[in-house]
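Entry:
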Amino acid sequence: MTTPRIEAADLQRIQQAVRQIIEAIGEDPYRPGLADTPRRVAELYAEMFSGLREDPASVLSPTFPATHEEMVILRDIPFYSLCEHHFLPFFGRAHVGYVPRGEVVGASKIARLVDILARRPQLQERLTSQVADALMEGLRPYGVAVVVEAEHLCMTMRGIKKPGTLLVTSAVRGVFRRRGVTRTEFLSLLRGGQP
């Protein structure tokens, strides 16, 4: 999985760009309420896009030997991202499952993987696939399943204006793709074991 890498966010360039946007919408970037906005936005973007400067594979080690070859699920991982189309937030929960092949990884590492990949200009569909692919490459499990549910502010505060609407995406690899019973078990466990 190739990852775009940049050394550091260019805070000065972001501040200049934000100042220009403020001027372009007809506001005074130097009035008291807006004077520090370019700096604040630059710091926000540096944080929100910090995943561009991190290698997702690096968080999937160390792994631990395990004889457990049954499903492992980390459910309800909260995440926040920015849609690359409008640079508006989308946020929700990711659910990640895998069937280990001789080794497992700490649960916090999976949450960290989701966080790194979400902290980039993103599409939800790509985020879902990237999480699945990174786990397949990093752990070499029998299979991986990922479900992401998110609300997109580009649908809530503009355009169609439908707050509360969730986009649900999934990615299945290995046994989750080949075996319907495995996929069904995963989806059932996401619902708390309810059919």
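The mean pLDDT is 94.
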